[in-house]
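Appendix B. One record, verbatim.
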Amino acid sequence: VSAARHDATFGFSAVFDAGASQEAVFEGSGMRQLVELAIDGFSCTVFAFGQTGSGKTYTLMGPLAQSETRPAAPGLLGLMQRSFACLLEQSRSRSSDLALSASYLEIYNEQVRDLLSPGPPCALPLRWSKTRGFYVENQLSVDFESLEAIADLLLQAGSQRRRTSAHALNGHSSRSHALLTIHVRSRA
């Protein structure tokens, strides 16, 4: 990238073209390795960044029109569903006694909202403590043990509560930033 005042070079671990399958992105981006590291106790982060309409939501979640009666074709599942399936598969294959839970937040106009909490959405305070670090007060965390449970709860219920609107580049654009957190804890 060249600008009037300075030049910058950016490096990438992987680049995928528009024809790449969801499976190729999952395997090629290192998502499987991140899931394995999470099970081993490491904190892992996946960050999706890009222009409106570039495919972030589709890559992460697959087709938006998914439900129990109309599931997405397996080849179209997004990184989130594939990560959940991998997490559950790895947990079972390692004979790990893991407790899995999830929380799902959105940040919109400098307000944090819990996408899983029942009732009307309301702003939640961001707090800090010496023992916990930064956290969202009164954030709901939901336990799950199956792919169906986590997919229905997060990808359907939570995602339907996100703020969206149409604009010239995208007819169903999310207007907020979403933060999905999966907690992996040993029961032993």
